User: Fold this.
Amino acid sequence: MRRLLAGLLGWMLLIPSVTMATEIRDADHVWQDHDRLLVRMYLDMELPGVVLDALENGVRVDFISEARLDYRRWLIGERTVAAQTRSVRIEYYELSRHYVVTDHQRQQTDLAPTLGDALEILARRLGRMVLDVNRDSLRPGRDYRLATRIQLDHSALPLPLQWDARLRSAYVTRLGWYRWSLD
Assistant:
């Protein structure tokens, strides 16, 4: 038993620690009209070395932003009322020395001369999502909660990097969902 625990501890020390790369500092929401709920996330974007190296070597890096509106059902759990997903890609072109940020849903592309500018655009694109919610279907007295998260799209990476990113936890955001009340 001691050998097993010592081996497990040694193996855990060899794996690099989890790197917090993106943090949702705050989030809020605004009703745009009767059926459209704008969810805003305020992000601190930072890319760890493994992802930066991949980006600078021509690898396209995709991120997924998710938002959903849930309500709690006593002991049964949560039920999702509305959900939205957004995919945004960042690329680096060495010849022009520019970063390109592409929002797949809106078919919008932005150029950025520096990594800092690209991360700012990326955070803005990932951090704004619209949920289509019928306000009349929301029942008073229920505990409606919004939840959001940002994550690296591992499946969009080349196969050798997929394993590397997963095994070494190369990109991790806040664990779980960032939640707040609809009130």
User: Anything to note?
Assistant: The chain has one domain: 20-181. The first strand starts at residue 20 and ends at 31. The chain is about 25% helix and 45% strand. Residues 8-20 have pLDDT under 50 and may be disordered.
